[in-house]
Design a protein that fits this description.
The complex is a heterodimer of chains A (114) and B (297). With 114 residues, chain A is an all-alpha fold. Chain A has one domain: Orthogonal Bundle (Helix Hairpins). Chain A contains four helices and no strands. Chain A is elongated and about 50 Å long. The termini of chain A are far apart. In chain B, helix 1 packs antiparallel against helix 2 and helix 3 runs antiparallel to helix 4. By secondary structure, chain B is mainly alpha-helical. Chain B has three domains: 162 residues, NADH-ubiquinone/plastoquinone oxidoreductase chain 6, subunit NuoJ (Four Helix Bundle (Hemerythrin (Met), subunit A), Up-down Bundle), CATH 1.20.120.1200; 60 residues, no CATH class; 43 residues. Classes of the chains: A mainly alpha (114), B mainly alpha (297). The interface between A and B is large, with 87 and 119 residues.
């Protein structure tokens, strides 16, 4: 198995690995977005936001590896922190809403207007 | 863009992936979910393989393909599985393979933090809430799936818009990537020199190379055998480990942000307790069940 480190690649190929990771990140982000828009279950909508967090994390870590700057990895830790806080608040809200309507459907709450 | 992958084939594959995702979303009646999943997975795999083929045989790392395909397939299942518990379990699979990608990128600390915090804590909370908030199927009700789980809202429009976004995003990414300059590896020994303590032996590098991973930045050929820093009075200092480097980045530049994230976590905890403790008037049936259990117990 040839790793990138062992292969003596021409200049264009060096950046290819970054493009790999960025494609995976973009595809995962778009999957999360599609899920957020199409699914009608509140919990799955929250799961899809977590999926988008994950995608952003892949891009951040890939860039931090590419630029040899560990701030990207440190930022992923903060993203995980915010995701934990968001999950706690969101799930508390979901439990509250479920107790009121006995349903997880997002459309139960269509009459909420801001 | 031309340097990385041919645009026409790439957009065709994206359209194929869009069709697959659209078919894979849950719907009533005829359910072509497996076909859609296969089509989408084939499209994603072809895109990633095409990116690899342009590397003329120098594949970046075999595990990259394994982990990224598992991650994308599992995230497709997250958004397409009609049962929330399974969606959460597939999300755990996504997290595990994402942390595999992070290990390939030599970001071990983030990978393990991801497994512990996400798969270990956050997703367990999700599973608890899903199980709390999903009614068990009764004998009279054969179709256990709720309607809001079985039918997705506007699958075609959402998929089209999402994949247009993906096409725009990847176009910009692939155009921009070849002009980016990779980082300077000479910065790493600087960090090593500023860290306390001496690093003797070349353990980390050898371990990483044994595992076929890059102990080196993306795009930098390995300088095997060369001491990374011999300014330490005769004793060579190899790479500081990933944990040391992340810790350095953390404490040197983001001490205030750590305090702030502690405040955020505290506020989230308080908010969650306040929200979840709110009293909601019980329905008639629940009241009767409560009095029954009190009398019986």
């Amino acid at each position: 198995m040839t790793t990138l480190a062992q292969a003596n690649l021409p200049a264009v190929m060096h950046q290819l690995t970054l493009a790999h990771y960025l494609f995976v990140s973009a595809a995962m982000f778009v999957l999360g977005l599609i899920g957020f828009v199409t699914r009608r279950n509140l919990i799955i909508m929250f799961l899809c936001t977590e999926l988008m967090f994950q995608a952003a994390g892949i891009a951040l870590v890939a860039f931090s590896r590419f630029h040899l700057n560990h701030t990207g990895e440190a930022f992923v830790i903060f993203v995980i922190t915010v995701a934990a806080a968001e999950a706690a608040m969101g799930l508390a809200l979901v439990v509250l809403l479920f107790r009121r309507r006995e349903s997880l459907s997002a459309e139960e709450w269509a009459e909420m207007k801001g | 863009m031309d340097q990385v992958i041919s645009p026409i084939g790439f957009y065709l594959l994206l359209a194929l992936g869009a069709v697959g995702v659209c078919l894979a979303l849950p719907r009533k009646g005829v359910n072509p979910q497996p076909i859609g999943a296969v089509v989408a997975a084939a499209a994603a795999g072809l895109v990633i393989l095409l990116l690899g083929l342009r590397a003329q045989g120098h594949l970046p790392n075999l595990w990259f393909y394994v982990f990224s395909l598992i991650a994308l397939g599992a995230s497709l299942r997250v958004i397409s599985h009609p049962r929330p518990v399974y969606a959460a379990l597939y999300f755990i699979l996504t997290i595990l393979s994402t942390s595999g990608l992070f290990v390939i990128l030599a970001a071990e600390f983030v990978a393990f933090a991801l497994v512990i915090v996400y798969a270990g804590a956050i997703l367990i909370t999700y599973l608890f809430v899903i199980m709390l908030a999903t009614q068990a199927p009764s004998e009279t009700q054969v179709e256990a799936r709720a309607d809001y789980d079985a039918v997705s809202r506007e699958p075609v429009a959402a998929t089209v818009v999402g994949f247009i976004l993906l096409a725009a995003l990847t176009t910009m990414v692939f155009r921009g990537v070849p002009t980016l300059a990779p980082g300077d590896p000479s910065a790493i020994p600087d960090i090593a020199a500023r860290l306390p303590g001496r690093y003797s032996g070349q353990g980390l590098e050898r371990v990483l190379e044994d595992r076929g991973m890059t102990a080196h930045p993306i795009g930098q050929p390995a300088q095997t055998g060369a001491p990374l820093d011999d300014a330490g009075g005769g004793a060579t200092r190899p790479y500081p480990g990933n944990v040391e480097q992340v810790a350095f980045a953390f404490l040197a530049g983001h001490a205030g942000a750590i305090e702030l994230s502690g405040v955020i976590l505290l506020m989230a905890m308080l908010g969650a307790v306040v929200l979840a403790r709110k009293q909601v008037e019980m329905g008639e049936e629940a009241k009767r069940a409560a009095t029954l259990s009190e009398g019986g117990g």
